Amino acid sequence: MVRNRSRQSPARQEFDQFVADSVEGLLRAAYLIAWDFAEAEDLVQECLLRMADRWPRVRTMEHPAAYGRKVLVNLALDEGRRRTRRRAELDSSRTHPVDQQEDPDAVRVLGWVETGTDLSRALGELAPRQRAALVLRYFDDLSEAQTADVMGCSVGTVKSTTSRALERLRGVVDRQGLQWTATERPTQKPEGSVTR
Q: Domain range spanning residue 160?
């Protein structure tokens, strides 16, 4: 039975619109932080459930999307240790690429992430907190202060975490024999090229 949207309360309509406007960004961020498709979906679902429970208060906030992002990042980082342990226990053959998932909307949102690029593999080698810092700073384009607020840490911690993450990412990229600048996607280095 499909509900008539006009019979829904204004608060419910606002929440439905919030979900429609936010779910793609939340799913992308969750995948980049958790580095697991099913986990990303679970994180977004849990985030939206928490948002729904608190919607009467959240809807009055100046930036509900920022609050949602904070809930998501906290969930992702809190679950990071458990997820890492679980991932180590599972056979890597059980993890499927994004394009083999059944949800076409999620594949559309996340398809650009797992396109076989070497950068996405390099991101996968970072710790969840480092990925979170990079996702918030460079994918979600937040300032250092906004990132610190979302991650619940100081601006200095964001700076050092981001710096270490970029350093580690550069090391992974170099180790994989890739050429990468901040303005382009990584490409294989031509044979015989020298890294400077």
A: 116-190
